[in-house]
Amino acid sequence: MSVDNPMTSYCLGDIVSLSQGLPINVKTKHLLVDKGLPLLRITDLINSMYSQFINTDEVPLKCVATEDEIIYTRTGQVGLVFRGVSGVVHNNCFKVIPNKDLVDPNYLYWFLSQSHIKEYANNIASGSVQKDLNHSAFKSIQIDLPPLDIQRKIYPILDSLSNKIALNRQINHTLEAMAQAIFKSWFVDFEPVKAKIAAIEAGEDAEGVTRAAMRAISGKTDEELDQLQAEQPENYTQLKTTAELFPAAMQDSDSGEIPEGWKVGKLGDIAGEKRKNVKIEDINPETPYFGLEHIPRKSISLSEWGYASEISSNKLIFEKGDILFGKIRPYFHKVGVAPIDGVCSTDIIVISPEENYYSFVLSIVSSEKFVEYATQTSEGTKMPRANWKTLMRYPVIIPDKLTSKRYNKIVFVFVNIIQKNIFECKNLSQLRDTLLPKLLSGELSVDAAKLAEEEG
């Protein structure tokens, strides 16, 4: 930092106050309701999924966080920092309330997000089995602050990189939802088939029957399809070809009525378990490693992983494109597509679908219904485990190969975009984490950081 913009040293206790979260115990459990403000426990904050709610009328206001406030985790997983969420802060966290005359809240967020600050917080936390960071310890952490005008020039650079990461993740989430919506329409509700049947019953000719399926597949009206044909004839032809793949009748089966030409089978008919064990001494330390902790809940996008240098036991080999299914406590819904080759925990089932049914299998094993089946059939009480010999018996209605291949083609586009975004997020995260300490320490100027951001 230049002489014109000197740093001023503080303890955090000089520039912030803390507000403890709400303990849920015998005295407060009556506050839990079906609808209200979400309870922000650490696991909820990490997964952005909320399952418990607090009575809005009775909750102490000091425990309520708004989106512009900072939440810091103090028990168990010490040193995680969150903002942009609203709800009731749980007792394993506290709110960090800055003196805005001295520190900008966004600058403070980035200061607390630094890896060495998290490491230091864990070192000064008490407890061996479960870490606990008390208020006094947190307030003792040292911080060097530049003037407010400099703080307000620094944090937008870091925010910009994080916003790009968040946008990519939102795109991935949208693509996953689109794939599941198509799967449900085609292979669960049989909408294109039923549309054809209804058109036949209404006396439509062959072209009208195909048009009905095209409407069901695309969600477009006849007028919109006419416009598509005029303006994008190749896309129109592709849609028509897809519609023609679906049968125009249903047939009886042991599972009820299914599309004509399709069959009732089991997951094991179109997918297998890939179980390639590898000894720890035979693994290159730089090999990417996936543990259950790297697989997010309810998302096939695997954007975080470790390396074999961190592991100490034998693992399983997987290849790019394999499906990784977390078998410990399957209700956590941890299923993803491997974006790279690597090794994984033996608590993960590596699923290898038949080529023509890849996307079909992916959509099945990442569905809520399949995860429920895995949970119901898992073995053990404290640590229930799913196993492939049971999962492979999961009943499925198997479409013909041409229809499945068409679904493959659509979902492959989605998966390729998802994986491209994963690596872009990885690069952006590395750039942000490199710039973060240098910007906050004054080692790197704002102008140089902006140039690095543009080049990144």
From TrEMBL:
This is Type I restriction-modification system, specificity subunit S. Signal peptide: none annotated. GO terms for biological process: DNA restriction-modification system. Residues 8-176, 259-419 form the Type I restriction modification DNA specificity domain. Belongs to the type-I restriction system S methylase family. The keyword DNA-binding applies. One of its GO terms (molecular function) is DNA binding. SUPFAM superfamilies: DNA methylase specificity domain. InterPro entries: Restrct_endonuc_typeI_TRD, Restrct_endonuc_typeI_TRD_sf, Type-I_RS_S_subunit. It comes from Methanosarcina mazei LYC. Pfam families: Methylase_S. Keywords: DNA-binding, Hydrolase, Restriction system. The keyword Hydrolase applies. Its EC number is 3.1.21.3.
